[in-house]
Amino acid sequence: MLIPHFISVQAHRCIKALRTVQTEPAASQLYTTVNRRTCSSVSAPRITTHYTIHPRDQDSRWEGMEMERFADEADVVIVGGGPAGLSAAIRLKQLANKHGKELRVCLVEKASQIGAHTLSGACLEPSALTELFPDWKERGAPLNTPVTEDVFSILTEKHRIPVPMLPGLPMMNHGNYIVRLGNFVRWLGEQAEELGVEIYPGYAAAEVRYISFVVSVGIICIHFPFLSQDVFERGMELHAKVTLFGEGCHGHLAKQLYKCFNLRENCEPQTYAIGLKELWSIEEKKWRPGRVEHSVGWPLNRNTYGGSFLYHLNEGEPLVALGFVVGLDYNNPYLSPFREFQRWKHHPFVAPTLEGGQRIAYGARALNEGGLQSIPKLTFPGGILIGCSPGFMNVPKIKGTHTAMKSGMLAAEAIFPRVTAENSESETAGLHIPEYSDNLKKSWVWKELHSVRNIRPSFHNYFGLYGGMIYTGIFYWIFRGKEPWTLKHCGLDADQLKPAKDCTPIEYPKPDGKISFDLLSSVALSGTNHEGDQPPHLTLKDDSVPVARNLAIYDGPEQRFCPAGVYEYVPMETGDGMRLQINAQNCVHCKTCDIKDPSQNINWVVPEGGGGPAYNGM
Fold first, then answer.
1. Catalytic site residue 503?
2. How far apart are CA 4 and CA 111, in angstroms?
3. Strand 379-380 to strand 383-385: parallel, antiparallel, or no bridges (unpaired)?
4. pTM for the model
5. How far, in Å, are 37, 40, 378, 545, 556 from residue 44 at the CA level?
6. Which among 20, 344, 367, 368 has the fewest CB atoms less than 10 Å away?
7. Alpha carbon of 609 to those of 55, 235, 484: distances in Å?
């Protein structure tokens, strides 16, 4: 097998040990693949060349290609090297070591390094970490900044209205730590490797295959994209009785599993937000380590959910992490989350902190905001969903790391006795472990999410933000979420946009290059890169839809909701109309396009492993 240049030395050793398995491409396989390209869309020009849209057996480019696979087996395979996946891996090995059992745990991560695709605020609640490693301080966990000051504000265009942080409110951060989550995840990876977990960064799990498909699914196999068409080698497989899917928000494989197993049959549609973040070095006289600031209000109107954060880190230099979150259920197609973020930084309460400073990093990601109502069925034969893939974020807290970690630990504890049982009926059949769901519902994760279940949907009222704050004050602060009803969300975020003719265009100020910046210079700070010789991972189900529907009805909202300048409408070379251009090399893997596209025509699939952003401690 040809090894891409970004694969680690450890992964090279793994490949040498692989057994070659000859497999025929199955008609029932679910496909996903690789990316980059500039595209056009008119009546018929072809944009999408990806094999998820154009099957290999109908595409002449694949004629004569060798389809031999390499395969390996493990007791447990984990997809995704974030807090949930790593916590699950660590807990499995802790249990194996405690009980003297041999257990092979393999974890694959699409980023070139563990933590390179991790982005969050982040203010970490250490409850799950303390359960996983009671001695985390002695182990050197990078929690260097305990919260010392909590500030919450409602912003108007020129002023700030302070809101008292009363004990018991979900935004209270006493006992929490400001962290750079990428650094924390990297530390978790180090702990996992010390325990014997096999970690393979640079492997993007692209497909799910189902073997021994009789009544239930057998072994779930993960396939990986290829290097390029000219030097194509079929992606490898990893086989396991149980595979944990911890891909993060709106996971590519999770989308396949939802459809295959109808996992979302009995829950509400997930609702999302986009979070944009920058890291700044500021003047030391303005630095207040441990200070946490949150705000709602301006520049968003009362009916657009969102808010900001600004955290003062204590990492040996005067750093602040700041960001802006916009709920993706907004209805004005002219809204640009990126430009709202840039505008917010000029508020009189925010700008003084940044003046004279230097921006050193930028990134963006989607967030699950559906809460308890939107959690799908979590188990199926051969697999389990953990972390932000199904969505355990506590929205009013703006925290999901602690719940993601706990979900991974609970999954490990449910898996371990089943996967190590010596009286297993079959060596190949995938294990179905409903005990995980049962244990989760008995845990503090479920209790926490149940208590805040109505806060996010309470904002869907005539008074918007202010009505939601009143509801939170009465039913959460006073009654602790014990009201006997559960509110519903408004449906898919993609269905919330109004036609452009019914909305007012938003005039955004030009960036000044000191506090606010343009999009492309921001993307440059994310370290994003994709190899050019791969099919675009931003696929369209129908190449004619962008111009015929999105541009015609919604004025091309993808060119505004994307935080990386991936989508733009440009004139046709012939001068007769517009075409969609997809700059896939800019993609920061936030998946907002897949979520917010009003036509649900964009399908985000994984690119070649190792591509994407290169966040350094974001």
1. no
2. 13
3. antiparallel
4. 0.90
5. 17, 9, 40, 10, 18
6. 20
7. 21, 11, 47
Tokens of 417: 């006795």
Which member of 106, 221, 388, 590 is catalytic?
590
DSSP, residue by residue, 160-215? EEEE---TT-TT--TT-EE--HHHHHHHHHHHHHHHT-EEEET----EEEE-S-SS
DSSP bridge partners of 210: 220
The burial of 1, by beta-carbon neighbours within 10 Å (0-12 exposed, 13-18 middle, 19 or more buried), is given as: middle
Domain 516-604 class in CATH? alpha beta
Residue 436: what are its φ and ψ, rounded to 5°?
Answer: -60, -50
The pLDDT tens digits for 219-274 are 344 544 443 445 667 778 889 989 999 999 999 999 999 999 999 999 999 999 99
Please list the alpha-helical segments (H only) found in 196-307.
252-261
Per-residue pLDDT at 231: 63
Mean pLDDT of the chain: 87
CATH number for 72-143+179-267+376-453 (one of 2.30.40.10, 1.10.3720.10, 2.60.40.1930, 3.50.50.60): it is 3.50.50.60
DSSP code at position 250: T
Q: Is 401 a catalytic residue?
A: yes
Alpha-carbon distance of 111 to 611, in angstroms, equals: 7
Supply 149's token pair: 């000051």
Q: Find all residues with CB under 8 Å of 56, minimum gap 6, and list them.
A: 25, 62, 65
pLDDT of 329 strictly over 80: yes
User: What span, in angstroms and rounded, lies between the C-alpha atoms of 362 and 524?
Assistant: 8
Indicate the range of 59-63, 234-238, 335-339, 436-440 predicted with least confidence. 59-63
Catalytic residue check, 407: no
Domain 516-604 in the same topology as domain 72-143+179-267+376-453: no
* Strands in 80-169 per DSSP E: 105-109, 123-124, 145-146, 149-155, 160-163
Helix 401-419 / helix 83-99 crossing angle, nearest 10 deg: 40
pLDDT of residue 493: 98
Residue from 106, 123, 221, 587 carrying the catalytic annotation:
587
When pLDDT is cut at 50, 70 and 90, the band that residue 306 belongs to is very high
| 23 part of the active site | no
Assess whether pLDDT exceeds 80 at residue 68: no
Radius of gyration of the chain (CA): 24
- Which among 308, 401, 403, 407 is annotated as catalytic? 401
Q: Across 163-177, 362-376, 476-490, which has the greatest mean pLDDT?
A: 362-376
The DSSP call for residue 472 is I
Residue 228 is a catalytic residue: no
State yes or no: is 37 an active-site residue: no
Provide the token pair at 91. Answer: 């807990």
Residues with Cβ within 8 Å of 618's Cβ and at least 6 positions away in sequence, in order, are 118, 119, 120, 180, 181, 182, 277, 279, 361, 363
Residue ranges covered by each domain of the chain: 72-143+179-267+376-453, 516-604
Residues 6+ positions from 226 with CB-CB distance below 8 Å: 34, 232, 233, 234, 235, 534, 608
Q: Which of 33, 40, 41, 120 is catalytic?
A: 120
Catalytic residue among 14, 39, 249, 562: 562
Catalytic, out of 91, 343, 359, 365: 365
